[in-house]
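quick one
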Amino acid sequence: MAIKDFIDIADFTPAQLGGLLDRALADKKLFRQGKLPASLPHKVLAMIFEKPSLRTRVSFETAMTHLGGHAISLTQSDIGLGQREPAQDAARVLGRICDGIMARTFSHQLVVDLAGYSPRPVINGLTDYSHPCQAMADIMTGMELRGDLKEAKLVFIGDGNNVARSLAMLCALLGIEFVLACPKGYEFAAEFTAGVKARCPQARLSQTGEPLSAVKGAAIVYTDTWVSMGQEKEKARRVKDFKGFQINPHLLAGAPKDALVMHCLPAYRGYEIAEESMEAHADCIFTEAENRLHFQRSLLAVLLGEGGIE
Ligand code: CP
Ligand code: NVA
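structure w/ phosphoric acid mono(formamide)ester:
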């Protein structure tokens, strides 16, 4: 049976994920040739935001417009999810009036609950646990710029948080080596790494406190903010803890010259990435941002227009 929602990378097989990536790369070409069909005429996507967003909001809304549909942005002050009414009621209302829901929330369970109650597809637009659309756009970018990534190594310098988890799971499923380089206390929970290994016994997944040795042989060096949305009160401690885990020319001197440098954005220059490294690798970093649009447009076409992920 086709999968109705896009909640977490772990919900899919390597063939399904690979299929979505190939589809997004092909659709991007068609779009650029002006040949991508507007396959969602009059369809409406409800977008729920408990946290701020630039890329997620603009890419989903633009994608719906390209496909001939429309998107409605709803903030917590508009709908009071869990306060004005429970998620299970909001999900059933939106799932009847609209054709799909994209949600960015703090709690991951909330997106799972929305999907459980909505008769229409629900897409995870980032939770505290995962950010699957970001990971897909990132690997799509790597494939576009470097071709097959099967034997490649992706080194993530930073917090073992939502973006890192989605990337780690996606790399495991696609046969890409994943290394998390982070300070003590910011590693993946043992439960998560056990889950990856249970899902993919062959997964090449490791963690280290030595970023400089980790980047040796890396095809992709990746980072994300040290202070995620909702962690603002921990900023002083995190900035202290992550000292030495910055992407900068010194670190990149240890990586292959042609390594791609990625960042999911927003970037905090002078913290997780140095200004000069950010600018030197801007082309790759902003291709990732653009690919949020291309990946999600294909995802929307599949979920809202083609009955789900087979
Ligand atoms: N990378 C990303 O999800 O960006 P926004 O938070 O701006 O949506
Ligand atoms: N880890 C970051 C990702 C932002 C796209 C956060 O959750 O704020």
